[in-house]
Specification:
This protein has one helix and twelve strands, in the order ββαββββββββββ. It has a single domain, classed as Sandwich (lipopolysaccharide transport protein A fold). Strands 3, 4, 5, 6, 7, 8, 9, 10, 11 and 12 form a ten-stranded antiparallel sheet that branches. A two-stranded antiparallel ribbon has the order 1-2. The longest helix is centred in the N-terminal third of the chain and has 11 residues. It is mainly β.
């Protein structure tokens, strides 16, 4: 029996959640302070849970396996395995999350709609502040959905790209719901 994981109001198979953890770890530790939805996150502690952890100081790498959960402030990542590549000061510079699915959740204090995302593979580049969702990628914002085999979420600009512009191979599928007041 496959385990399911709840993300916000949605439920995913636990394997999808493993891809989000590395992305969240990097995003939380290295995100610029000017982002409105996470302005207090750099002061928040980083909380991480996993069944196992391996740290390779000589090559600045750490690997977390087994139902990995990462939280900092208003962001959460979940996945089966998270790999974190560190800079010389031990700050995350590139995070890879693998799961079935891996999940990402960010809720802003000033935003009515948070961002929820899921994919089988996620990569977070802290220098660009971009999360790349690969394979069965979906982004939710409120009732709206964005689906493709490859989605790039630019966190600093709050911009989502998919399809040919991100080297995706499928057509982009978008559902926009009318706003309700």
């Amino acid at each position: 029996m496959k385990k399911k994981v709840k993300l916000g109001t949605r439920t995913f198979p636990s394997a999808l959640t493993s891809l989000m953890v590395p992305i969240l770890v990097s995003a939380l530790l290295l995100a610029p302070r000017y982002l409105p939805s996470r302005e207090d996150d750099p002061q928040e502690p980083l909380y991480l849970e996993a069944d196992s952890a391996e740290l390779f100081e000589a090559i600045s790498l750490s690997i977390y396996r087994g139902d990995v959960f990462v939280r900092q402030g208003n962001m959460e990542l979940r996945g089966d395995q998270v790999t974190v590549h560190h800079d010389p000061e031990h700050r995350p510079k590139f995070i890879v999350v693998i799961g079935t699915p891996a999940t990402y959740l960010q809720r802003g204090k000033r935003e009515e709609k948070g961002i929820e995302a899921a994919a089988l593979h996620m990569e977070y580049d802290t220098a660009k502040d971009e999360i790349t969702l690969i394979d069965q990628a979906v982004v939710f914002q409120g009732e709206d959905t964005f689906r493709n085999d490859r989605i790039v979420y630019d966190r600093a600009q709050a911009r989502i790209k998919a399809g040919v512009v991100t080297k995706g191979k499928e057509r982009v599928k978008i559902r926009i719901s009318p706003s309700r007041r």
